Amino acid sequence: MEKKKEIVMSGIRPTGFLHLGNYFGAIRNYVKMQEQFECYFMVADLHSLTTHPDTKELKTNVERVLAENIACGLNPEKAALYCQSHVYETSELYLYLNMLAYKGELEKTVTFKDKVRQHPENVNAGLLTYPVLQTADIIIHKAKYVPVGKDQEQHLEMARNFANRFNHRYGEIFHEPVAYNDNNAALVKVPSLDGAGKMSKSENGMSTLFLSDEDEMIRKKVMKAKTDSGPTQPNTPKPDYIDNIFGLMQLVSAPEVIAKFEADYNNCNIRYGDLKKQLAEDMVNFISPIREKINSILPDKKYLKEVMEMGAEKANKSANATMKLVREAIGLKYY
Ligand code: ADP
Predict the structure, then answer these.
(1) Using an 8 Å Cβ cutoff, are 97 and 135 in contact?
(2) Mind listing the domains of the chain with CATH numbers?
(3) Is the distance from the beta carbon of residue 201 to the nearest atom of ligand 1 less than 6 Å?
(4) If the chain, 335 residues long, is cut into consecutive pieces of 10 residues, what is the mean pLDDT of each piece?
(5) Which ligand 1 atom is at minimum distance from the Cα of 188?
(6) Is the dihedral of CA 206, 209, 214, 216 positive or negative?
(7) Which helix (H) or strand (E) segment is 33 a member of?
(8) 15 CB under 6 A from ligand 1?
(9) CA 122, CA 63: separation in Å to the nearest integer?
(10) What is the pTM of this model?
């Protein structure tokens, strides 16, 4: 008998254009993992309602995220690529898990505190219980590995706590899910071009490189990245904003090119204009083929609908099987 593959689950919110952080933090791993694991990758449309209650753009954004994932190399025939809202059982599991999650621990979540700061006018219960819904998304497939960026580390720790609490109270059903990056490497954080925080869909658009950016826009954004007049002492530690530029180079530039600029920096003869020009061209070479592919997939609405249907079927099959066990374990079976 064929050995059962280990299970992988992750998701991305349809709240805007995907960017380099989503690619290197998440999608790059999705593409590798689909070869070896049983994979569930979802467009987290329900999660997006916590911060984006206006749904006029939702369908367009969902289609875009699907097209962007496929353009990056995700194969909907191999992985289940689906919409969160197409798996109704997730909302049921979310309800059960909410009874095992405490207000105090939810209020301490860093992402919750960030969101409260960003949207003080809309601190809803969905935002507070975001990590609970995320746990339901993951464990409903009994997933073991969750490919995500560094910003999600705390949520995964909470997911392990909730899964364990369920197991202790009602019986062993779930695995403890872990955040995953390729080859046990540290989780990735792609910095913003302004040197402050991470690249993100929702924050300052000029500091984030989107997979749909035109070549000229990529050059413009990279050339605006903050620098200074350069080091005056050999081997000076790099300030954060310079370190970020080198960090971005690590993602897309050739090792010998990086080594040359590192040496120039350490010898105090680096020209930041040249460094940024090089980074801009390497980014253009990396992003433009992905952009072209996104643009060729997006108009094919029939194909995108088929992808969603195929994904929903696979995801529902897995979720239904788990939920049967969950209802029985809780004792919600009377005849
Ligand atoms: P965003 O923060 O841009 O709205 P999501 O919350 O939808 O993105 O996250 C989707 C995935 O992309 C998650 O796995 C998240 O960890 C990853 N991710 C988002 N931004 C970055 C970043 N700057 N660096 C690394 N990974 C990131």
Answers:
(1) yes
(2) 7-187+300-330 (3.40.50.620), 205-295 (1.10.240.10)
(3) yes
(4) 85 95 95 97 97 95 98 98 98 98 97 93 97 98 95 96 98 95 84 87 86 98 95 94 95 97 96 98 98 98 98 98 98 93
(5) 25
(6) positive
(7) helix 28-33
(8) yes
(9) 26
(10) 0.94
